[in-house]
Specification:
Order of helices and strands: EEHEEEEEEHEE
Largest sheet: 5 strands, antiparallel
Structural class: alpha+beta
Length: 164
Amino acid sequence: WYQRRVHGKQWYQRRVHGKQWYQRRVHGKQWYQRRVHGKQWYQRRVHGIKNMIVGILTGYRYKMRLVYAHFPINASITDGGKTVELRNFLGEKVTRKVAMRGSTTIQAGELKDELYIDGPDLDDVSQSAAAIHGKCLVRHKDIRKFLDGVYVWAKGPFGEEKAI
């Protein structure tokens, strides 16, 4: 992960209780815990730190597709990639505006009807994608027939996105 020199010695990240040294790894331990609480603590702390490191080094990207059967959905990106406006969803006249969270930005993708959501914080990127998906949900119709919407089709660290 990272290392530095302190008084001529190598310095590495240690476990919380301080009995063992590990190189280039993030570890954590909590004393006097139940099994469930320990796993929850580990998930929040250690994986959160790992997500932050990946976010700073490479960033995260969610790829979304505009899916429609008859009425083409128009997406326009405004405010320098901080807001997206969705028009003509199911032929409706309503304009749906979604603001990106935090330092997340949105841009048009390489394919037709594709959006890229980029940012260093995984929570902000995923919540922005969920907000866009939630704005274009089909209501009061049979969702087995009306499959229109905006869907995430790939996600992951920048340059390593995997299809869902």
